[in-house]
Amino acid sequence: MKRLWAAAFMALAALAHAEPGVTADKLVLGMSTPLTGPLAHYGAELRRGVKLGLDQVNSAGGIAGRRIELLVRDDAGVPERAVANTRELLAAGVLAMTGYHGAASIEAVLPLLDEAGAPLIGAASSAELLREPMRKRVFNLRAGAREETAAMVLQLDTVGLIEIAAIVQEDALGRAGLEGIQLELNRLALRLASLARLSVAANTAAVAQAVQTVCKQRPQALLLALDASNALSVIRQARRIGCVPQFYVMSEAGAQLLAGAAAPGELSGVIVSQVVPHPSTSSIPLVVDYQRLLAGAAPPSYPGLEGFVYSRVIAEALRRCGREPGRRCLVTGLEGKALDAGGYRVQFTPGDRRGSRFVEMTIVTPDGRFRR
């Protein structure tokens, strides 16, 4: 009888100290992302990339003998659904979250993650609200809006285009984008030729007015810190009136536009900033591995590679935990020395969650592809 009581006590003690999402043979991650709705392409490719990376880890024996399981829920890009999904995933017991997409959805779930103490490793959003003020449990594996727009200005200066205008959205995305533009312009002793602002739900008249405002100055380049819908409306209106500067669009909007928002060839010549390397390059081990594992199942994509980065970083942080994985050691592992995901480097500290500042520019080809 004493032995039975002792065994029961030990089992209860182990249960009391059990880490969420950690069992003897598996580690469980949670993911809420749009698999239906207008953002479905991005979400589906994110999921594909994360799963490719985790499957690779599992086929090699997992982490200290534990397989990594991914629980995925569809939020359709709707914040309320993201919140419901997150509650469900936390109740199911997950070690960490990954692959959330969209600033509004991510912002809506942050209080739940803080309350549960669950880290979000890999958020598919350039929104600065995920970076400043620093959010202890959000680990950004991609550059933010500020870095994207600053890189646009730097490239324009490099090629000698200094008559620059901007149209920015009246939200967190637009504010961060404008900040990056102005910081880089100030560093180069330049200033915007013209600036206009658009609401998130701008109508046709508002778009026309914004375009008229910036095009009066005949800019050489027009930087758009806008979502996909507004960016496409601005490009169409500007071309309609014969205003054809070099258009610059941010990464998330560019991915959505090429996924079907724009007609074939409509974005030809538009420059799009990217926050992970080109998914078809052959010079970066991470990307080559992604292509090999994809094995022709789908074309390589930026969101797919981004998801693959997430899985690589999570796996490396878990390896640093040794045989006792948990949320605390996962955070400690991420805050330690820099992680190299195969030519894509991320670095966190206890006071900085901007893991990567990588940005490069691509141009949209007439057949709707991104070319470096």
The CATH architecture designation of the largest domain is 3-Layer(aba) Sandwich
Along the chain, the helix and strand elements come as HEHEHEEHEEEHEHEHEHEHEHHHEEEE
Mean pLDDT: 92
Question: How is the main sheet built?
Answer: 7 strands, mixed
Distance between the termini: 72 Å
The low-confidence parts are 4-17
Shape descriptor = elongated
Beta-strand segment tally: 16
**CATH homologous superfamily caption of the largest domain:** Response regulator
Q: What's the domain count?
A: 2
Global structural class? alpha/beta
The level of helicity is 40-55%
CATH class of the largest domain: Alpha Beta
- Beta-strand percentage range: 15-25%
Helix count equals 12
Describe this structure as you would to a colleague:
By secondary structure, the protein is α/β, with parallel strands linked by helices. The protein is built from 12 helices and 16 strands. The strands form 5 sheets. The protein has a 7-stranded mixed sheet with strand order 9-8-10-11-12-15-16, sandwiched between helices. A hairpin with a 4-residue loop joins β13 and β14.
Write the SSE topology.
Blueprint: H1 2-16, E1 26-33, H2 40-59, E2 67-74, H3 79-92, E3 96-97, E4 100-101, H4 103-116, E5 120-121, E6 123-124, E7 138-139, H5 145-158, E8 164-169, H6 172-187, E9 194-198, H7 204-215, E10 221-225, H8 228-240, E11 246-249, H9 251-261, E12 271-274, H10 285-294, H11 302-319, H12 327-335, E13 339-340, E14 345-346, E15 360-364, E16 370-371
Parallel strand pairs: 1-2, 1-3, 4-6, 5-7, 8-9, 8-10, 10-11, 11-12
Antiparallel strand pairs: 12-15, 13-14, 15-16
Helix pairs in contact: 2-11, 3-4, 5-6, 7-8, 8-9, 11-12
